[in-house]
Automatic annotation (TrEMBL):
The active site is at 348 (proton donor/acceptor), 367 (nucleophile). The keyword Ion transport does not apply. This is L,D-transpeptidase family protein. The lineage of its organism: Bacteria, Bacillati, Actinomycetota, Actinomycetes, Kitasatosporales. Residues 268-399 form the L,D-TPase catalytic domain. Residues 1-26 are annotated as: Disordered. Residues 7-17 have a biased composition (Polar residues). SUPFAM superfamilies: L,D-transpeptidase catalytic domain-like.
Length: 429
């Protein structure tokens, strides 16, 4: 039976034998045409397929040529492109796998200001030299090459966290500095910290002398560290802050990773006796100089207690109105001035008073004065000598003044708090 043709017994009613014969003949021709057409079609498809395969082979060969030149170097930029809320401390970096970096640029997107940075010695990474600005958009462009010298490039744009949702700490002393034995490590946060335990647990201070160092909070924005006694002379002190992404308060995270090391110099502790108007300078346990001074008058007495030199100025202006004394004095060029308190206590040179007052009369508004000359140009004066022989962090103790003991958080006067009170609870508890 031919395909698609009914048998005579299947023919419909009223169909004659001749009609059936003609119908079968027509269907047979049609079937043959279909079969032949199928054969032609198959031949045509085979021909077209061979041509297409040839074209595909050519295209693949054409595509594979540049593929052979693709660099194996894979550059990764952190933060990711188009990200926001990036840290200003540790988030920015460029790394490469299977290659070495050849060039990296980082700029502020709006101003175009370049950000300094450096490629590591092995060529595998790049980092900025300093922390970034907050709420700022940055662009990074990086180039690298693989072992075969083939280049690779990558780019990213990101925005750092806003000031409203982040905090940092300003610290003293500076890294690499040499300070006196009384210098505490002091951190001032730019936002109020409510989760003090979390923040303090990510800060450590250690010393090569092995002294135990403990932190103490003064309010919500200041955290100081010190040992029980003054630092050991010659020791190295290291401050480590790992505050990046640490929660300091609701909606407030840290954006700072920092390691700072400073050196403790020789021991110098100077004691001012307000009863005799003299200052005895002791270095490494030996008296090296006794200096006549003039402390605060009976109306404006000098604080008692242990104070620490926090700033030094060859010359500075002192205006009484800035510390509650109205227009009682305004001296534009006070020589050899060293700050002892945040409230305005200095130990400094004095050229405007009669030389006879030093060592005999208390005449100041609370500062400690030493004989000096206008312009700070005479190195033989007591004030010039003391200035030249003092370090930030040196201790100045005042005794026998008719005033109270200075508060521990007034300047760097931490040593006036008893150790038991300092350690009570602990900064990270």
């Amino acid at each position: 039976m031919e395909i698609g043709v009914k048998s005579p017994s299947q023919a419909g009613p009223g169909t004659s034998s001749e009609q059936r014969r003609r119908r079968v003949a027509r269907r047979g021709v049609a079937t043959a045409s279909v079969l032949l057409g199928g054969a032609l079609a198959l031949t045509a498809c085979g021909g077209s397929g061979s041509h297409a395969a040839s074209k595909a082979t050519g295209a693949a060969a054409a595509d594979s040529a540049p593929a052979k030149d693709i660099s194996q170097a894979k550059i990764t930029i952190t933060p990711k492109d188009r990200s926001s809320g990036a840290s200003i401390a540790a988030d920015s970096k460029v790394t490469v796998a299977d290659g070495t970096l050849t060039h990296v640029t980082m700029t502020e997107a709006v101003s175009g200001k370049a950000v300094a940075g450096r490629i590591s010695a092995d060529g595998k990474s790049w980092t900025p030299d300093d922390r970034l600005s907050r709420a700022t958009q940055y662009r990074i462009s990086a180039s690298a090459k693989d072992a075969g010298g083939r280049p690779a490039d990558a780019n990213a744009t990101f925005t750092t966290v806003s000031p409203a949702h982040s905090f940092i700490a300003y610290y003293t002393p500076d890294g690499g500095s040499t300070v006196g034995v009384g210098m505490p490590v002091s951190l001032d946060f730019d936002k109020a910290i409510t989760d003090k335990r979390a923040v303090a647990s990510h800060i450590s201070v250690s010393t090569s002398s092995g002294q135990r160092v403990v932190g103490h909070w003064f309010g919500d924005q200041r955290l100081d560290f010190r040992p029980q006694q003054y630092w050991k002379p010659g020791s190295k002190v290291t401050l480590k802050m790992d505050l990046d992404n640490v929660k300091g308060a609701s909606g407030l995270t840290g954006v700072q990773n920092k390691t700072v090391t400073f050196t403790v110099g020789r021991s110098q502790v100077s004691t001012v006796d307000a009863a005799t108007q003299t200052m005895t300078v002791v270095r490494d346990g030996r008296v090296i100089r006794t200096i006549p001074v003039s402390t605060g008058s009976p109306q404006h007495t000098t604080y008692n207690g242990q104070m620490v030199i926090s700033e030094k100025y060859q010359q500075t202006r002192m205006n009484g109105s800035t510390v509650g004394f109205g227009g009682e004095y305004d001296i534009p060029d006070v020589p050899h001035a060293m700050r002892l308190s945040a409230s305005g206590t200095f130990i400094h040179g004095n050229y405007w008073s009669a030389p006879g007052i030093f060592g005999s009369a208390a005449t100041s508004h609370g500062c400690i004065g030493m004989r000096d000359v206008k312009g700070a140009g005479d190195p033989t004066t007591n004030a010039a000598w003391f200035y030249g022989n003092s370090l930030v962090g040196d201790v100045v103790i005042v005794k026998n003044s008719h005033d109270k003991t200075i508060a521990p958080d007034n300047g760097l006067s931490d040593w006036n708090m008893p150790w038991s009170q300092w350690t009570a609870g602990g900064a990270a508890s």
